[in-house]
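S1.2 Input.
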Amino acid sequence: MNKKFPHIESKVLDNIINKAINFWMVMSVFAFLFQMYRATVISFGWIEVIQSVMIASIWPVVAARKRLSLRFKSTYVAAASASVAYLGIIKYGLMAAGFSIIPMTALVFALYFSQRTFTWFYAFNVFFLGLMAMFYTTGVMNHIIPSEFFITSFSHWMMFVIASMF
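S1.3 Output.
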């Protein structure tokens, strides 16, 4: 934060996060609907349950955004986005729509948290993605759904489109 004008910077950051949360709320409705549709076609396991809860949990945060602190909102956006992204990567590997959410999450960490916290997030991200790459390429983890399905699935494409908007 700027030491000369902390109030102004805080107000700008709060405005940015409120707009992001509003946008995320609108997109989360579509993401939730496509998640439910995709679940009827693929599966609805523990990963989809947690992702659906994280997606739907934005709605009360939007309703209370004026009363919530900047710290809470930025932490919530970072945690919820990262959770949805990493869970998708665990289940779908390279086919996960969550890959496009990670840069936005990194931006939230860079804007709202300390350099040290951002560095930890960056290190975790590299470690996690490297670990997933190793697991998928060595056969420790396997796609339970053929990749061809993802390429021809409208609902999965829409998850990519929605995730890329975050």
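S1.4 Remarks. The radius of gyration is 17 Å.
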